[in-house]
Amino acid sequence: MGLRLRDARRAAGLTVREVARALQVSAGTWSAVENGRTKIDEVRLEKAAGILGTDPSTLCGATVPARVSWREFPPLRLDPALTGALGAFVELGFHGATIRDIANRAGLSVPGVYHHWPSKQDLLVALLDFTMEDLLTRARAARAEADRPPERFARLVECLALCHTHRRELGFIGASEMRSLEEPGRIRIVTLRQEMQHMVDDEVVEGCRRGLMTTPVPREAARAVVTMCTALPQWWSASGPSSPEAVAGQYVEFALEVVRLVR
């Protein structure tokens, strides 16, 4: 819901502080709501919907926007401050990047960044929230395309590899900046990462149960496969010889060998 609230606020042309003032809460509290760190009750949700010019049911997710295929990666469109933060965090690291670095990359002033984003931590949390929401949505769609564990497993691996190449910068900070997350944002992102791991675990465990895979250590094999995919941003480059699709195909074959698929 936090992401939907943020999108609605931006569509309405309002800042965090303006919405917070209208709701009679602090800017920090409203930022925490948008980042999923604080829950919002029904009364305040209805009031927020009125301020944002939308319907409460939309903010609750009653309508699901259409999206592209899980194999398609259109150009990444982020808030200018998030784009600046992404570039700064990749090049300088979270602790090395300053708000001025982010502002310069975003084409904004330092006060302009703070006008919408209370802290650098909020920018990091928003980037990782976006990364995990996108990955999990694609992974669920990929998994739903197949009926048997080996095929579902292969599609999950393909999805992981595609996301960590097409969205290399997001994947890079997802791996390198977990240590920089503060609570309660950290535990939420960790939970989302575990959900992704559990999808892969389940397919390998079920594949072994049916005799379709023969690894004696299914959960360890699944962990190795996910780790292999999440390491892609450390070496893959768009200027290199292999496309994301070629790498994904190779990694599916590697992964099937790891779980000892019965062919």
Any idea what the shape is? Answer: globular
Instruction: Please tell me the CATH architecture of the largest domain by its name.
Output: Orthogonal Bundle
Question: What's the CATH first level of the largest domain?
Answer: Mainly Alpha
Number of strands: 0
Please, how many helices? 14
Strand coverage percent: under 5%
Give the CATH H-level superfamily of the largest domain: Tetracycline Repressor, domain 2
Largest sheet properties: none
Helix content: 55-70%
Overall radius of gyration: 20 Å
Which structural class do you get from the secondary structure elements? mainly alpha
Low-confidence parts, pLDDT < 50 over ≥5 residues?
A: 62-66
Order of helices and strands: HHHHHHHHHHHHHH
The CATH topology of the largest domain comes to Tetracycline Repressor, domain 2
Any idea how many domains?
A: 3
Name the average pLDDT: 90
Give the end-to-end Cα distance, rounded to a whole number of Å: 44 Å
Question: Which structural traits does this protein have?
Answer:
Tetracycline Repressor, domain 2, about 65% helix, Arc Repressor Mutant, subunit A, mainly alpha, 3 domains, about 260 residues, 434 Repressor (Amino-terminal Domain), 14 helices, single chain
Folded structure, characterized:
The protein has helices at residues 2-11, 16-23, 27-34, 42-52, 56-59, 80-92, 99-106, 110-116, 120-144, 149-166, 168-176, 185-209, 218-230, 244-258. The chain has three domains: 2-59, 434 Repressor (Amino-terminal Domain); 80-120, Arc Repressor Mutant, subunit A (Orthogonal Bundle), CATH 1.10.10; 123-258, Orthogonal Bundle (Tetracycline Repressor, domain 2), CATH 1.10.357. The chain has 14 helices and no strands. It is mostly helical and 263 residues long. Residues 62-66 have low confidence and may be disordered.
